[in-house]
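Protocol step 4 of 5: obtain the predicted structure for the target chain.
Materials: sequence only (see below). No template structures provided, no constraints applied. The aim of this step is simply to have a reference model before the mutagenesis design in step 5. Sequence pasted as it appears in the construct record:
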Amino acid sequence: MTRNQRRQLQKLAERVDRVVESDHRFFERFPDRQYRVRLASQAEIETNAIIEGDKITVAPDRQIYVAVKSVAPRTNLRLIIVGPRDADTDIPEDLAQALYERVNCDKAREIEAQVRLMASGVR
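Step 4 output (structure tokens):
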């Protein structure tokens, strides 16, 4: 990662942190939930472009969403999804889980396993 990319990520970090905090509050308010889907913030989209090395392009009738999974208290994983522009994000747990699992990949499952180990205190 270049020095300029690191600087850009630092500038975006505070905005991304606010969005991540909203995910934490969601799961605290709804302790029976483990999944949610919401609109992606511009900061998340820009951060993803820097990390992945390419910008997500979407058709005019599409929009970028984030599927979030709570794996431990205040520990969430987020996956980018492209979907219909007018899709409802106030969806039930089973549908949010199905969307998350649909975009889940081996890399994300490996990260989730590592996060679960760290959250459990195992070293």
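Step 4 remarks: The two ends are 28 Å apart (CA to CA). The first strand starts at residue 35 and ends at 39.
Proceed to step 5.
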